[in-house]
Amino acid sequence: MPFPLFSQIDPRTMPSHRRPRLLAPLLLIPLLSSCFASGGGGDSGDDGGKGGDGSRLRVALAFPPAENLSPYGADATLLSRLGVTEGLTSLDANGSAAPALAESWRRDGDKAWEFTLRDAVFQDGTAVTPAAVAASLGKATGADPAPAALEGVTLTARGSGDRVVRITTDEPDPVLPLRLSSPSLAVLSKDAYAKGGRVDPLGHATGPFELTEANGATSASLDRFDDYWGGRAQASGIDARFIADGTARANALRTGELDIAEAVPVAQAASLDKETRRDTATTRTTSLLLNASSGTFQDAGLRAAARAGLDTSVFAKDVYEGYGDPGAGVYGPAVTWAEGKRTKPVGRADAGKPDGETVHLATYDNRPELPEVAQVVKQQLEKAGFKVKLTVREYSRLEGDALDGKFDAFVLARNTLLDTGDPVAVLASDYTCDGGYNIAQLCDEGVDRAVADAEKTADTAKRQDAALAAEARILGSDAVLPLVHQRIITGVADSVQGVILDPYERTLVGTGTRR
Amino acid sequence: MRQRLAALVWRVVLAGGLVCGIGLLPWLTHTDPAYTVLKARSAERAPTPEVLAGIRRQLGLDGGPLHVLGDWLGGLVRGDAGESWISGGDVLPGVLQALGASLLLMGVALLVAAVTAGLVCARTLRLGARRRLGGRRAGGTASAVLASLPEFLVASVLATVVGVQLGWLPALGWYGFQWTVLPALALGLPAGAVLGRLLDDLLPGAFGEPWALAAAARGLTGRSIARQAVRRCVPALLPNLGLFVVGLTGGAVAVEQVFDIPGLGRTTLQAALAQDLPVLQAGTLALVLLAVLATAATRLAARLLTGPALRDGALSSLHRPAPPARALPPLLYAAVLGAVVALGLTRDPLALDTGQKLRAPTLAHPFGTDALGRDLLARVGHGALDTLLMAAAISAAALLAGVLLGLVPRVSGPLVDTVNAVPPVLVALLVTAVVGGGAATPALAVGAVAWAPLATHTAALLRQERATLHITATRGLGAGRRYLLRRELLPAVLPPALRHALLRLPGVALALASLGFLGLGAQPPSPEWGLLLAENQPYAERAPWAVLAPAAVLALLGALAVTAAGALRPPRPTRTRVGVGRPADGQAEPAGAHKEPAAVR
Fold it and tell me: Which residue range is the domain that position B502 belongs to?
């Protein structure tokens, strides 16, 4: 009988052979340090040493940069939230255009606007001149694909005099100042466009904070820009981290690793102290869209029956745990002018009698509350007499089918103030025959006409009236049933002051933010 | 030499097929990459034809799939893995960085797993070293429970309790060594429990071998006997360890998410969803290469540990002598599980009452309620049937496929490596591409991966079994290949493979639920167990019972599976077998071993 395992080994010599082998991996430790993420972390406590005034803010953002911080896509919002970039205009609390890099503006005929620049410098030290602004806007119009704010618009910008930028459009554009407030139309200096095609905002923007380092989708460092036209920021810089998981953001805030955590999920809000969670109404409305051109809800009577069967009060109160307002219309309370001007829905059909018709309901799980909303909707519709089948997928696996009208009903959280800042834009894209995002498949002559009327109106107040008249028609069709207007929860550590809670989610940190 | 060459060619063919499969994925699934890339860049952007055309121009998609693939392969030859379709940045540095983080995490997790496995086997080792193993059955309940705990649950609990509430270790980030501890625990504990159970399964056999008896008789310490027993058994587990190395590197998505680690799992997941093909191809290729390295390393280690015995067919059989089965624990677990399910079935799992949200357990709701005020007992009970049937069916199929393919290791080895290296989401997408999005797709997607560890285990056991003396002897007596396979090899290999399959059954249930976001598998409001866990995870801190209930039944299922498998162990008929040690009598001193009847002829 052989003892192959046993005979080769002298037990007494074993340990001395083994130990060095076990220790060898320890020699690798210095090499391993490159496997860790750079920047951020618990080390950035008080960084008061720099200049002796103001400490750095530690901020967690929910969405990592998708396109290397290119200003033409979704990353633009990220740059503007951190106070890096600015456009010619910005949005004020009422949703109208407010001065930013442009001090004032005036319309010159149907197709031209003139913006007078303020005295400002880029973070690389060059002056913000009409030529630089015109060049920057020119690059944005030439981007492929074009920024969302410029969709369907052709504009030319040109310097005129030493303070004025003249912008002309091919078609009359009454909302141009609103449009220019879009983060994707931020003004960058000439050097930002040096490398072929790529736009590099590092040190080339005009905001109160200058981006000094970007570590891909992990973190970014920003320093205060001392020559900002609006005065020096109180915080000496920002350490931004991109943490996609909502629970992780809340946890980091609770351990004191962060000063500000963006978009804390409703489920985690209760784990934060009452003073730490700040909520603000947003322009995001969660609605139930009913497919008006095919399937069960083609019948306006059944759509009305679905509306009658829904009890929208539970969504804000229970599913959103109070971090929401009951659905009132397409626009929520964050659109401040809407409430006072809203009129009754026009042309509602009488509720029919559902008799076990099947409804294919769909929603997505990228926002964790939506599957819960959809399950409540499912139960309420079933009580009303429908048979409901629910589908939940990741958004990008769902949207195509939704736009093709493959579902009867869809729970959607929609930002009602799109990149253009124009309240009419969402109506045109979501509820007209030619709309690019018409999940409700609504194609109604009355609605189309009302929306077209609103689009043509230039005067702000009248445009708002026209938008609400169109909203009344859209609600009258029962193709959209507003469920809840979301409030966004921002986690803010006790010591931090001056965080900007922006209903349009375009700003977060400003000159007055400090800890 | 020729065999090696064939294996190499087979490997290259598989890797090439995989890369080409990924390259053709959008065209196979009819999902426009311009569209998914747009959504990854900016979810709110309306996909108008102009925007999509712009992206297509930017990515150079107009030339069709072959053109795109050819360009990428051409670049790869020059060491350029292309540019990410989403960000436009270079792929290679990003993937390498993510790989570095993942490898480090995996390394620490393996350390944790090794310690865990050691603890799981501690009892067997201690008893074995004292030669008191005979007649005692390993418990296995604790380790089975640990093995069935979902990683994401362990991760959330560790982050919240240790990281936030106690503040002992950082709760998230990836900046230094103290940041590696909690994620490594979350990954290593379940993995260690699986490996520990497999090892624990083999150890009694090793202790029962004649050399152990002789060593004890010669007066060697129990410690060194135990060490040699471990050394004897580890080679059979090494291939599975290799799978864990690759699986933990590329598949730690949930843990990376909870602890915010910039690892390869998240990178490939995002790339798979957005169809960012260059990143996906580079990431998968890196994992496949890692798998090749891991396999080579485990093979080398097995050779070093087993030595020439393997080549010379001089091993003795590692059959664990069958001690009397204890039927009590499995009966108990089955009774509890049955009672929970029966009670739950009498209630309504879908009745919502949002006013009763997240209520703690009371008489009216013995398991509490979930975020929508549904009764958790009802949901657990009603979910049992779906979960169990589906998971059991997949496990059975995986076992069959695993054992069959494990019999032909030369074909299946590289296949296992490749399949195991592919991120699970990608497997699901590829399966969907081939068979479409039918009802059986999720089962196929999970089954496509689930067989791999079983095949590896079978192959490793078979390799050892073929090298045993009794096989040589049986062959010498004129037995044909079929006889050998049917009467000697399969009976030796099947029981451990079956126990392994049962150990992984809860994992299969979880894997099924994790495909839900692709629109595959159970959809809300179905009370399927994996789904229950996933939908209640965000509330784990506020309403621990909401995750505890499904986790507990899953753990109970794991314990039931493992203990029942032990009880199912067929009593071995007395058969001519060379080199099989009889169980050492429990009370017998080593010196008394000579009293044993001569089973060793």
Answer: 327-568
